[in-house]
Protein backbone atom coordinates (compact mmCIF):
# COMPACT_ATOMS: atom_id res chain seq x y z
CA UNK A 1 0.00 0.00 0.00
CA UNK A 2 1.25 3.49 -0.88
CA UNK A 3 0.86 6.42 1.52
CA UNK A 4 0.28 10.04 0.49
CA UNK A 5 0.69 12.68 3.20
CA UNK A 6 -0.93 16.02 2.37
CA UNK A 7 0.82 19.01 3.93
CA UNK A 8 -1.66 21.84 4.37
CA UNK A 9 -1.18 25.58 4.52
CA UNK A 10 -2.37 25.77 8.14
CA UNK A 11 -4.56 28.86 8.00
CA UNK A 12 -6.15 27.89 11.32
CA UNK A 13 -2.70 27.79 12.93
CA UNK A 14 -1.90 31.41 12.19
CA UNK A 15 0.08 33.42 13.19
CA UNK A 16 2.54 30.52 13.58
CA UNK A 17 2.02 28.85 10.20
CA UNK A 18 3.27 30.17 6.88
CA UNK A 19 -0.24 30.38 5.49
CA UNK A 20 0.22 33.73 3.72
CA UNK A 21 3.19 33.39 1.42
CA UNK A 22 4.82 36.67 0.46
CA UNK A 23 2.93 38.79 3.00
CA UNK A 24 5.69 39.17 5.55
CA UNK A 25 4.77 35.94 7.34
CA UNK A 26 7.24 34.83 10.01
CA UNK A 27 5.91 31.32 10.61
CA UNK A 28 6.77 27.87 9.32
CA UNK A 29 4.97 25.55 6.91
CA UNK A 30 2.28 23.72 8.83
CA UNK A 31 4.04 20.36 8.53
CA UNK A 32 7.13 21.78 10.28
CA UNK A 33 5.43 23.34 13.29
CA UNK A 34 6.96 21.70 16.38
CA UNK A 35 5.07 19.33 18.64
CA UNK A 36 7.23 18.31 21.55
CA UNK A 37 10.17 20.05 19.81
CA UNK A 38 9.79 17.86 16.72
CA UNK A 39 8.11 18.80 13.41
CA UNK A 40 4.59 17.41 13.47
CA UNK A 41 5.05 15.54 10.19
CA UNK A 42 7.76 13.37 11.79
CA UNK A 43 5.12 11.75 14.00
CA UNK A 44 3.10 10.87 10.89
CA UNK A 45 6.23 9.46 9.21
CA UNK A 46 6.98 7.34 12.29
CA UNK A 47 3.41 6.06 12.17
CA UNK A 48 3.83 5.21 8.48
CA UNK A 49 7.05 3.30 9.26
CA UNK A 50 5.09 1.18 11.73
CA UNK A 51 2.46 0.54 9.07
CA UNK A 52 5.17 -0.69 6.68
CA UNK A 53 3.83 1.08 3.60
CA UNK A 54 5.81 0.20 0.51
CA UNK A 55 6.20 3.88 -0.37
CA UNK A 56 5.67 7.18 1.47
CA UNK A 57 4.91 10.35 -0.50
CA UNK A 58 4.90 13.84 1.04
CA UNK A 59 2.69 16.17 -1.01
CA UNK A 60 2.93 19.95 -0.62
CA UNK A 61 2.68 23.10 -2.69
CA UNK A 62 5.65 24.38 -4.64
CA UNK A 63 6.11 27.12 -2.02
CA UNK A 64 6.59 24.64 0.85
CA UNK A 65 8.00 21.43 -0.61
CA UNK A 66 11.65 22.55 -0.62
CA UNK A 67 11.47 23.78 2.98
CA UNK A 68 9.86 20.51 4.12
CA UNK A 69 12.35 18.37 2.22
CA UNK A 70 15.33 20.24 3.65
CA UNK A 71 13.98 20.12 7.20
CA UNK A 72 13.45 16.33 7.01
CA UNK A 73 16.97 15.49 5.84
CA UNK A 74 18.22 14.94 9.40
CA UNK A 75 15.19 12.76 10.17
CA UNK A 76 15.79 10.62 7.07
CA UNK A 77 19.49 10.32 7.90
CA UNK A 78 18.63 9.18 11.42
CA UNK A 79 16.33 6.47 10.03
CA UNK A 80 19.17 5.06 7.97
CA UNK A 81 21.59 5.17 10.91
CA UNK A 82 19.14 3.31 13.12
CA UNK A 83 18.71 0.64 10.45
CA UNK A 84 22.48 0.21 10.11
CA UNK A 85 22.88 -0.21 13.88
CA UNK A 86 20.07 -2.77 14.05
CA UNK A 87 21.38 -4.71 11.07
CA UNK A 88 24.84 -4.93 12.65
CA UNK A 89 23.36 -6.05 15.97
CA UNK A 90 21.24 -8.73 14.30
CA UNK A 91 23.85 -9.78 11.77
CA UNK A 92 24.44 -13.15 13.43
CA UNK A 93 20.89 -13.58 14.68
CA UNK A 94 18.29 -15.90 13.26
CA UNK A 95 15.85 -12.97 13.24
CA UNK A 96 17.91 -10.85 10.86
CA UNK A 97 15.62 -11.67 7.92
CA UNK A 98 12.75 -9.82 9.65
CA UNK A 99 14.64 -6.52 9.50
CA UNK A 100 13.54 -4.29 6.62
CA UNK A 101 15.16 -1.15 5.34
CA UNK A 102 13.05 2.00 5.89
CA UNK A 103 10.75 2.68 2.98
CA UNK A 104 11.70 5.58 0.70
CA UNK A 105 10.19 9.00 1.30
CA UNK A 106 9.39 10.91 -1.88
CA UNK A 107 8.50 14.59 -2.08
CA UNK A 108 5.79 15.59 -4.56
CA UNK A 109 5.41 19.21 -5.57
CA UNK A 110 1.84 20.17 -6.40
CA UNK A 111 0.50 23.08 -8.41
CA UNK A 112 -3.15 22.18 -7.94
CA UNK A 113 -5.52 24.56 -6.18
CA UNK A 114 -7.43 21.85 -4.26
CA UNK A 115 -6.59 18.48 -2.78
CA UNK A 116 -9.09 16.76 -5.05
CA UNK A 117 -7.50 18.25 -8.15
CA UNK A 118 -4.08 17.26 -6.84
CA UNK A 119 -5.24 13.66 -6.39
CA UNK A 120 -6.85 13.45 -9.81
CA UNK A 121 -4.30 15.22 -12.00
CA UNK A 122 -1.00 14.69 -10.19
CA UNK A 123 -1.20 11.57 -8.01
CA UNK A 124 -3.35 9.03 -9.86
CA UNK A 125 -0.57 8.28 -12.32
CA UNK A 126 1.74 7.48 -9.40
CA UNK A 127 -0.67 5.00 -7.79
CA UNK A 128 0.02 1.34 -8.58
CA UNK A 129 -2.18 -0.41 -6.00
CA UNK A 130 -4.22 0.23 -2.86
CA UNK A 131 -3.29 3.52 -1.22
CA UNK A 132 -3.79 5.60 1.91
CA UNK A 133 -4.47 9.35 2.12
CA UNK A 134 -3.21 10.97 5.33
CA UNK A 135 -3.00 14.47 6.85
CA UNK A 136 0.32 15.79 8.14
CA UNK A 137 -0.96 16.94 11.54
CA UNK A 138 -2.19 13.95 13.56
CA UNK A 139 -0.65 12.50 16.70
CA UNK A 140 -1.86 9.16 18.02
CA UNK A 141 -0.87 6.14 20.07
CA UNK A 142 -3.25 3.88 18.12
CA UNK A 143 -1.10 1.45 16.13
CA UNK A 144 -1.64 1.54 12.36
CA UNK A 145 -2.20 -2.20 12.27
CA UNK A 146 -5.68 -1.67 13.74
CA UNK A 147 -6.60 0.51 10.77
CA UNK A 148 -4.95 -1.79 8.25
CA UNK A 149 -6.71 -4.88 9.61
CA UNK A 150 -10.03 -3.06 9.52
CA UNK A 151 -9.40 -2.15 5.89
CA UNK A 152 -8.48 -5.72 4.94
CA UNK A 153 -11.63 -7.04 6.63
CA UNK A 154 -13.95 -4.50 5.01
CA UNK A 155 -17.08 -5.55 3.16
CA UNK A 156 -16.73 -6.66 -0.44
CA UNK A 157 -18.63 -3.67 -1.85
CA UNK A 158 -16.52 -1.05 -0.02
CA UNK A 159 -14.30 0.88 -2.40
CA UNK A 160 -12.77 3.00 0.38
CA UNK A 161 -12.69 3.12 4.17
CA UNK A 162 -12.77 6.40 6.07
CA UNK A 163 -11.85 6.81 9.73
CA UNK A 164 -13.61 8.99 12.29
CA UNK A 165 -12.82 9.75 15.92
CA UNK A 166 -14.58 11.26 18.91
CA UNK A 167 -13.39 14.71 19.88
CA UNK A 168 -12.55 14.51 23.59
CA UNK A 169 -10.49 17.69 23.84
CA UNK A 170 -11.43 20.33 26.36
CA UNK A 171 -12.09 23.39 24.23
CA UNK A 172 -10.69 26.07 26.51
CA UNK A 173 -10.58 28.51 23.61
CA UNK A 174 -14.05 28.75 22.13
CA UNK A 175 -12.66 30.43 19.00
CA UNK A 176 -10.52 27.40 18.21
CA UNK A 177 -13.05 24.62 18.56
CA UNK A 178 -12.99 21.80 16.03
CA UNK A 179 -15.52 22.30 13.27
CA UNK A 180 -18.41 19.92 13.70
CA UNK A 181 -20.67 18.41 11.10
CA UNK A 182 -23.77 16.25 11.01
CA UNK A 183 -22.44 12.85 9.94
CA UNK A 184 -25.02 10.43 8.59
CA UNK A 185 -24.03 6.78 8.57
CA UNK A 186 -25.55 3.32 8.80
CA UNK A 187 -24.07 1.43 11.74
CA UNK A 188 -25.70 -1.83 10.52
CA UNK A 189 -26.29 -3.17 14.02
CA UNK A 190 -27.56 -6.71 14.10
CA UNK A 191 -25.97 -7.59 10.75
CA UNK A 192 -22.61 -8.74 9.48
CA UNK A 193 -22.11 -5.59 7.41
CA UNK A 194 -19.73 -2.87 8.50
CA UNK A 195 -20.84 0.76 9.05
CA UNK A 196 -21.29 2.76 5.85
CA UNK A 197 -20.81 6.51 5.43
CA UNK A 198 -23.90 8.05 3.81
CA UNK A 199 -23.70 11.83 3.89
CA UNK A 200 -22.24 14.86 5.67
CA UNK A 201 -24.01 18.13 6.45
CA UNK A 202 -22.14 21.25 7.60
CA UNK A 203 -23.32 22.52 10.96
CA UNK A 204 -23.55 26.08 9.68
CA UNK A 205 -26.05 25.14 6.95
CA UNK A 206 -28.19 23.23 9.42
CA UNK A 207 -28.23 26.20 11.79
CA UNK A 208 -29.25 28.56 8.99
CA UNK A 209 -32.14 26.38 7.86
CA UNK A 210 -32.97 25.47 11.50
CA UNK A 211 -33.62 21.85 10.62
CA UNK A 212 -31.82 18.83 9.22
CA UNK A 213 -33.25 17.69 5.91
CA UNK A 214 -32.47 14.02 5.23
CA UNK A 215 -32.98 12.83 1.66
CA UNK A 216 -35.93 10.49 1.28
CA UNK A 217 -34.06 8.23 -1.10
CA UNK A 218 -31.40 7.73 1.57
CA UNK A 219 -33.98 6.57 4.11
CA UNK A 220 -35.51 4.17 1.61
CA UNK A 221 -32.23 2.31 1.21
CA UNK A 222 -30.92 2.79 4.77
CA UNK A 223 -33.93 3.11 7.13
CA UNK A 224 -31.72 2.67 10.22
CA UNK A 225 -29.41 5.59 9.47
CA UNK A 226 -27.73 7.34 12.41
CA UNK A 227 -26.91 11.04 12.68
CA UNK A 228 -24.06 12.16 14.92
CA UNK A 229 -22.42 15.49 15.72
CA UNK A 230 -19.78 14.03 18.04
CA UNK A 231 -17.72 12.39 15.31
CA UNK A 232 -14.84 14.19 13.64
CA UNK A 233 -13.33 13.18 10.32
CA UNK A 234 -9.70 12.19 10.76
CA UNK A 235 -9.15 12.60 6.97
CA UNK A 236 -7.39 9.25 6.99
CA UNK A 237 -8.76 7.16 4.15
CA UNK A 238 -7.64 3.79 2.83
CA UNK A 239 -8.67 3.31 -0.78
CA UNK A 240 -8.87 0.42 -3.22
CA UNK A 241 -6.98 0.73 -6.47
CA UNK A 242 -10.27 0.66 -8.40
CA UNK A 243 -11.07 4.10 -7.02
CA UNK A 244 -8.53 5.50 -9.48
CA UNK A 245 -10.83 4.49 -12.33
CA UNK A 246 -13.73 6.43 -10.83
CA UNK A 247 -11.69 9.59 -10.32
CA UNK A 248 -9.67 9.46 -13.53
CA UNK A 249 -10.51 12.16 -16.07
CA UNK A 250 -9.06 10.10 -18.93
CA UNK A 251 -11.50 8.27 -21.17
CA UNK A 252 -11.24 4.50 -21.42
CA UNK A 253 -11.95 2.43 -24.53
CA UNK A 254 -15.46 1.71 -23.26
CA UNK A 255 -16.08 5.43 -22.76
CA UNK A 256 -14.99 6.18 -26.32
CA UNK A 257 -17.25 3.45 -27.67
CA UNK A 258 -20.17 4.82 -25.68
CA UNK A 259 -19.48 8.32 -26.98
CA UNK A 260 -19.36 7.01 -30.55
CA UNK A 261 -22.70 5.24 -30.19
CA UNK A 262 -24.54 8.29 -28.89
CA UNK A 263 -26.16 9.02 -32.29
CA UNK A 264 -27.43 5.48 -32.76
CA UNK A 265 -28.56 4.67 -29.22
CA UNK A 266 -28.34 7.61 -26.81
CA UNK A 267 -29.17 5.64 -23.67
CA UNK A 268 -28.42 2.10 -24.74
CA UNK A 269 -25.12 1.66 -22.93
CA UNK A 270 -24.36 2.88 -19.42
CA UNK A 271 -21.00 4.44 -18.71
CA UNK A 272 -19.61 1.31 -17.05
CA UNK A 273 -16.16 -0.16 -16.83
CA UNK A 274 -16.15 -3.95 -17.17
CA UNK A 275 -13.70 -5.03 -14.50
CA UNK A 276 -13.48 -7.48 -11.69
CA UNK A 277 -12.10 -5.70 -8.64
CA UNK A 278 -9.91 -7.89 -6.49
CA UNK A 279 -12.00 -7.21 -3.40
CA UNK A 280 -15.35 -8.12 -4.96
CA UNK A 281 -16.76 -11.52 -4.13
CA UNK A 282 -18.71 -11.70 -7.37
CA UNK A 283 -18.11 -10.36 -10.84
CA UNK A 284 -19.47 -6.83 -10.91
CA UNK A 285 -19.28 -3.79 -13.13
CA UNK A 286 -17.81 -0.69 -11.59
CA UNK A 287 -20.07 2.07 -12.86
CA UNK A 288 -17.99 5.10 -13.63
CA UNK A 289 -20.06 8.09 -12.57
CA UNK A 290 -18.80 11.53 -13.42
CA UNK A 291 -17.38 12.96 -10.20
CA UNK A 292 -15.98 16.48 -10.10
CA UNK A 293 -12.58 16.54 -8.38
CA UNK A 294 -12.14 20.30 -8.36
CA UNK A 295 -12.85 20.38 -4.63
CA UNK A 296 -11.43 19.16 -1.34
CA UNK A 297 -10.95 15.49 -0.55
CA UNK A 298 -13.65 15.75 2.11
CA UNK A 299 -16.23 16.71 -0.51
CA UNK A 300 -15.04 14.03 -2.92
CA UNK A 301 -15.53 11.24 -0.39
CA UNK A 302 -18.86 12.74 0.59
CA UNK A 303 -19.91 12.48 -3.07
CA UNK A 304 -18.58 8.92 -3.22
CA UNK A 305 -20.61 8.07 -0.13
CA UNK A 306 -23.76 9.46 -1.78
CA UNK A 307 -23.35 7.04 -4.70
CA UNK A 308 -24.49 4.19 -2.46
CA UNK A 309 -28.06 5.53 -2.23
CA UNK A 310 -28.72 8.28 -4.77
CA UNK A 311 -28.92 5.93 -7.81
CA UNK A 312 -31.47 3.27 -8.62
CA UNK A 313 -28.69 0.85 -9.49
CA UNK A 314 -26.51 -0.25 -6.59
CA UNK A 315 -23.13 1.40 -6.33
CA UNK A 316 -20.03 0.71 -4.27
CA UNK A 317 -20.08 2.00 -0.71
CA UNK A 318 -17.61 3.94 1.41
CA UNK A 319 -16.97 2.16 4.68
CA UNK A 320 -16.63 3.92 8.00
CA UNK A 321 -14.65 2.98 11.09
CA UNK A 322 -14.75 4.87 14.39
CA UNK A 323 -11.38 4.79 16.14
CA UNK A 324 -11.62 3.03 19.51
CA UNK A 325 -11.41 4.87 22.81
CA UNK A 326 -8.49 2.71 23.94
CA UNK A 327 -6.09 5.22 22.42
CA UNK A 328 -5.75 8.94 21.78
CA UNK A 329 -6.09 10.61 18.40
CA UNK A 330 -5.49 14.35 17.98
CA UNK A 331 -5.41 16.39 14.80
CA UNK A 332 -3.36 19.52 15.45
CA UNK A 333 -5.26 21.55 12.85
CA UNK A 334 -6.14 24.50 15.11
CA UNK A 335 -4.37 26.26 17.94
CA UNK A 336 -6.34 24.57 20.70
CA UNK A 337 -5.72 21.08 19.30
CA UNK A 338 -2.08 22.03 18.64
CA UNK A 339 -1.65 22.87 22.33
CA UNK A 340 -3.35 19.66 23.42
CA UNK A 341 -1.13 17.60 21.12
CA UNK A 342 1.94 19.07 22.80
CA UNK A 343 0.55 18.33 26.25
CA UNK A 344 -0.28 14.77 25.24
CA UNK A 345 3.34 14.14 24.28
CA UNK A 346 4.67 15.96 27.34
CA UNK A 347 2.65 13.67 29.61
CA UNK A 348 4.06 10.63 27.79
CA UNK A 349 7.60 11.91 28.29
CA UNK A 350 6.99 12.91 31.91
CA UNK A 351 9.34 10.15 33.05
CA UNK A 352 12.25 11.65 31.09
CA UNK A 353 14.32 14.39 32.69
CA UNK A 354 14.00 17.70 30.91
CA UNK A 355 17.61 18.74 31.33
CA UNK A 356 19.95 18.60 28.35
CA UNK A 357 23.74 18.47 28.18
CA UNK A 358 23.79 21.61 26.04
CA UNK A 359 21.35 23.54 28.21
CA UNK A 360 22.59 26.06 30.76
CA UNK A 361 20.32 25.82 33.79
CA UNK A 362 20.72 27.59 37.10
CA UNK A 363 20.69 25.26 40.09
CA UNK A 364 17.84 27.12 41.73
CA UNK A 365 15.53 26.68 38.73
CA UNK A 366 12.82 24.01 38.72
CA UNK A 367 12.10 22.12 35.51
CA UNK A 368 9.26 19.63 35.71
CA UNK A 369 9.55 16.12 34.41
CA UNK A 370 6.65 16.93 32.06
CA UNK A 371 8.65 19.70 30.33
CA UNK A 372 10.95 19.45 27.31
CA UNK A 373 13.91 21.79 26.95
CA UNK A 374 15.70 22.01 23.61
CA UNK A 375 19.47 22.37 23.12
CA UNK A 376 21.41 25.62 23.56
CA UNK A 377 18.82 27.05 25.98
CA UNK A 378 19.69 29.31 28.90
CA UNK A 379 17.51 29.29 32.02
CA UNK A 380 18.46 31.64 34.85
CA UNK A 381 17.78 31.40 38.57
CA UNK A 382 14.47 30.67 40.27
CA UNK A 383 12.54 30.02 37.08
CA UNK A 384 9.80 27.40 37.08
CA UNK A 385 8.80 25.45 33.93
CA UNK A 386 5.95 22.92 33.97
CA UNK A 387 4.10 21.07 31.20
CA UNK A 388 5.80 23.19 28.56
CA UNK A 389 7.92 22.69 25.45
CA UNK A 390 10.88 25.05 25.06
CA UNK A 391 12.59 24.85 21.67
CA UNK A 392 16.27 25.33 20.88
CA UNK A 393 18.09 28.58 21.58
CA UNK A 394 15.60 30.06 24.03
CA UNK A 395 16.71 32.38 26.84
CA UNK A 396 14.59 32.48 30.02
CA UNK A 397 15.40 35.10 32.66
CA UNK A 398 15.23 35.10 36.45
CA UNK A 399 12.13 34.22 38.47
CA UNK A 400 9.97 33.30 35.47
CA UNK A 401 6.93 31.05 35.72
CA UNK A 402 6.00 29.11 32.56
CA UNK A 403 3.13 26.60 32.62
CA UNK A 404 1.30 24.81 29.80
CA UNK A 405 3.06 26.89 27.16
CA UNK A 406 4.95 26.36 23.88
CA UNK A 407 8.05 28.40 23.11
CA UNK A 408 9.38 28.16 19.57
CA UNK A 409 13.06 28.54 18.71
CA UNK A 410 15.17 31.51 19.89
CA UNK A 411 12.53 33.10 22.13
CA UNK A 412 13.74 35.55 24.78
CA UNK A 413 11.86 35.71 28.07
CA UNK A 414 13.06 38.50 30.34
CA UNK A 415 12.97 38.53 34.15
CA UNK A 416 9.85 37.90 36.25
CA UNK A 417 7.59 36.90 33.36
CA UNK A 418 4.54 34.68 33.86
CA UNK A 419 3.19 32.64 30.94
CA UNK A 420 0.16 30.38 31.28
CA UNK A 421 -1.22 28.52 28.24
CA UNK A 422 0.72 30.72 25.82
CA UNK A 423 2.23 29.94 22.41
CA UNK A 424 5.20 32.15 21.50
CA UNK A 425 6.52 32.22 17.93
CA UNK A 426 10.23 32.09 17.00
CA UNK A 427 12.52 35.04 17.83
CA UNK A 428 9.85 36.78 19.90
CA UNK A 429 10.72 38.80 23.02
CA UNK A 430 8.59 39.00 26.18
CA UNK A 431 9.44 42.06 28.29
CA UNK A 432 10.12 42.15 32.02
CA UNK A 433 7.34 41.53 34.56
CA UNK A 434 4.79 40.70 31.83
CA UNK A 435 1.91 38.33 32.50
CA UNK A 436 0.22 36.57 29.58
CA UNK A 437 -2.63 34.08 29.93
CA UNK A 438 -4.20 32.14 27.04
CA UNK A 439 -2.37 34.29 24.47
CA UNK A 440 -0.71 33.73 21.11
CA UNK A 441 2.40 35.74 20.24
CA UNK A 442 3.58 35.86 16.63
CA UNK A 443 7.21 35.26 15.78
CA UNK A 444 9.58 38.26 16.09
CA UNK A 445 6.94 40.16 18.08
CA UNK A 446 8.23 42.27 20.99
CA UNK A 447 5.98 42.43 24.06
CA UNK A 448 6.63 45.56 26.08
CA UNK A 449 7.62 45.31 29.73
CA UNK A 450 4.85 45.02 32.37
CA UNK A 451 2.26 43.94 29.81
CA UNK A 452 -0.76 42.10 31.26
CA UNK A 453 -3.00 40.37 28.71
CA UNK A 454 -5.51 37.53 28.66
CA UNK A 455 -6.92 35.75 25.63
CA UNK A 456 -5.20 37.99 23.05
CA UNK A 457 -3.43 37.27 19.76
CA UNK A 458 -0.40 39.52 19.28
CA UNK A 459 0.69 39.95 15.65
CA UNK A 460 3.05 42.33 13.93
CA UNK A 461 1.48 45.17 11.96
CA UNK A 462 2.89 45.81 8.48
CA UNK A 463 2.43 49.08 6.59
CA UNK A 464 1.76 48.51 2.92
CA UNK A 465 0.24 50.40 0.08
CA UNK A 466 -3.34 49.92 -0.96
CA UNK A 467 -2.30 48.20 -4.18
CA UNK A 468 -0.12 45.69 -2.31
CA UNK A 469 -2.97 44.98 0.06
CA UNK A 470 -5.28 44.25 -2.87
CA UNK A 471 -2.65 41.96 -4.38
CA UNK A 472 -2.42 40.03 -1.12
CA UNK A 473 -6.18 39.63 -1.06
CA UNK A 474 -6.04 38.20 -4.56
CA UNK A 475 -3.38 35.71 -3.50
CA UNK A 476 -5.46 34.47 -0.55
CA UNK A 477 -8.67 34.18 -2.56
CA UNK A 478 -10.08 30.91 -3.73
CA UNK A 479 -9.55 31.68 -7.41
CA UNK A 480 -6.10 30.12 -7.54
CA UNK A 481 -5.20 32.16 -10.64
CA UNK A 482 -1.68 32.67 -11.99
CA UNK A 483 -0.34 29.71 -10.05
CA UNK A 484 -1.14 31.23 -6.64
CA UNK A 485 -2.63 29.08 -3.90
CA UNK A 486 -5.72 29.86 -1.88
CA UNK A 487 -5.52 30.05 1.88
CA UNK A 488 -7.31 26.72 2.30
CA UNK A 489 -5.03 24.89 -0.19
CA UNK A 490 -4.70 21.69 1.79
CA UNK A 491 -6.75 22.43 4.93
CA UNK A 492 -9.78 20.21 4.78
CA UNK A 493 -11.36 21.75 7.87
CA UNK A 494 -11.13 25.23 6.35
CA UNK A 495 -13.36 24.13 3.48
CA UNK A 496 -16.92 23.52 4.63
CA UNK A 497 -18.97 20.76 3.06
CA UNK A 498 -21.14 22.46 0.48
CA UNK A 499 -24.40 20.94 -0.68
CA UNK A 500 -23.77 21.75 -4.38
CA UNK A 501 -27.49 22.44 -4.99
CA UNK A 502 -28.44 18.81 -4.49
CA UNK A 503 -31.87 19.77 -3.13
CA UNK A 504 -32.72 21.65 -6.31
CA UNK A 505 -32.81 18.54 -8.48
TrEMBL record:
Domain EIF2B subunit epsilon/gamma LbH, residue spans: 358-447
Region span, Disordered: 252-274, 460-505
Keywords, sorted A to Z: Cytoplasm, Initiation factor, Protein biosynthesis
A cellular-component GO term for this protein: eukaryotic translation initiation factor 2B complex
InterPro entries: eIF2B_gamma, LbH_EIF2B3/5, Nucleotide-diphossugar_trans, Trimer_LpxA-like_sf
Family, per entry: Belongs to the eIF-2B gamma/epsilon subunits family.
Protein name: Translation initiation factor eIF2B subunit gamma
Species this protein is from: Torulaspora globosa
Amino acid sequence: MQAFIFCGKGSQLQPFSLAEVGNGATGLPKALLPIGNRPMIEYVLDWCDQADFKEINVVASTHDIDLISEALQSFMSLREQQFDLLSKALNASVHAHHLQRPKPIKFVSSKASTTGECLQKELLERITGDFALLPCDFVTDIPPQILIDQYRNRDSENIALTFYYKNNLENADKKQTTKQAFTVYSDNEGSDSQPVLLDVYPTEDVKKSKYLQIRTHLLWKYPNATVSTKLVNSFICFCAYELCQLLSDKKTEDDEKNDGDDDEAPAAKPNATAIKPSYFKNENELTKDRISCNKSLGKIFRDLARRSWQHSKSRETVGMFILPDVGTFIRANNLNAYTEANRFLLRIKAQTLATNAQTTTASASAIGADAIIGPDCTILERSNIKLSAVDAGCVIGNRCHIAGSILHANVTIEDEVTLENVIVGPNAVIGKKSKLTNCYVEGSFVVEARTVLKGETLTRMSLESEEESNDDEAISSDSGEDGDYPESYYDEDDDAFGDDDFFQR
